[in-house]
Amino acid sequence: MASPRTMPTINATDCDTTNSALAFMHQRWMPAVLDAASRGARRAIEYRRMIDGISDRMLHVRLKELEAHKLIRREVVPSMPVQVFYDITDRGRSLVEAMRGVTRWAERADG
Question: Left (φ > 0), alpha (ψ -120 to 50) or beta: where does 29 sit?
Answer without folding.
Answer: left
